[in-house]
Write a structure and sequence with these properties.
Elements lengths: L3 H15 L6 E4 L14 E7 L2 E6 L3 E6 L5 E6 L11 E6 L3 E6 L3 E6 L4 H4 L13 H9 L6 H6 L9 H11 L13 H15 L35 E5 L6 E5 L8
Antiparallel strand pairs: 1-6, 2-3, 3-4, 4-8, 5-7, 6-7, 9-10
Helix pairs in contact: 3-6, 5-6
Length: about 260
């Protein structure tokens, strides 16, 4: 699933292509909003809220989308061919210069801008948003000291924007086993600050890098490296799937660098 930095870049691209321009073409190819007519409306801004995308219109409406696992946006010139097969397109937003195509978007909702909290109000501080507050993020994480840090970091109600990539990498960088209870994690403020800085750095480049080496196969410490030697100590990286029933996610760690506390 795309994480906060990827969603942030996606929204930045849509913002550049659409903001301040009148929609000359607008199609929502989902049953709930198939008859909605957005043509003639002006896009005020496109912003990210954690992993959610909010396209605000001058009519007082907001198009709420979420990429989840397979969704993606593609922007092309107004006269260029649509990307991919037509059956994958869920949203089309176009103006005289450019057209944005939302492909395989699992969430497409048209809501009143004044009621955006109905869909994003539950989120914790946004790691890449103007509301980022490390103290509030730590307070939310620490509210359940017996919960594993791995589960707490993926809970968007604590801090918004982390997925399995950043969970694995920040736990490694902090020397914390992902199954460590939150109450046993040393220096939660440093952990939250560090992951904020990681997303902030990666939000301005097309690749996610935590090692400082932006080359294929060398960008991550432990993520998707099961059975390979730790870049620090040489111990083989381990992997398991854990989490609440129905929400299990793969977790990676180095047994030597991240001992269970």
């Amino acid at each position: 699933m795309p994480e906060g930095d990827t969603v942030f870049r996606s929204c930045a691209g849509l913002h550049r292509a659409l903001t301040g321009r009148t929609l000359t073409r607008a199609e929502l190819r989902v049953q709930q909003h198939a008859t909605a007519d957005l043509a003639g409306m002006t896009v005020l801004e496109v912003v990210a809220r954690g992993k959610h995308q909010l396209t605000r219109l001058d009519s007082g409406l907001t198009l709420h989308t979420h990429l989840r696992m397979d969704g993606v946006w593609r922007v092309v010139g107004a006269r260029e061919r649509p990307p991919g097969p037509a059956y994958r397109i869920r949203v089309i937003l176009g103006n005289a210069e450019q057209t944005a195509f939302g492909l395989q978007l699992p969430v497409v909702e048209l809501i009143e801008t004044a009621r955006e909290d109905d869909v994003v109000g539950h989120l914790g501080p946004d790691l890449l948003g103007p509301d980022w507050d490390v103290h509030e993020a730590v307070r939310r994480l620490a509210a359940d000291p017996y919960r594993t840090i791995g589960e707490a970091l993926l809970d968007q109600r604590n801090l918004a924007g982390i997925g399995t990539f950043y969970r694995a990498e920040i736990c490694f960088l902090q020397g914390v086993h992902p199954r460590t209870p939150v109450g046993a994690v040393p220096d939660l403020p440093r952990l939250a600050t560090r992951v904020h800085l990681l997303l902030k750095a990666n939000a301005v480049r097309p690749t996610q890098v935590t090692t400082g080496v932006d080359r294929p196969g060398q960008r991550a410490w432990v993520f998707e490296r099961p059975g390979k030697p730790c870049r620090r100590c040489g111990t083989l990286i381990e992997v398991e799937r854990f989490g609440p029933v129905g929400q299990e996610r793969l977790s990676y760690w180095c047994p030597h660098c991240q001992p269970m506390r």
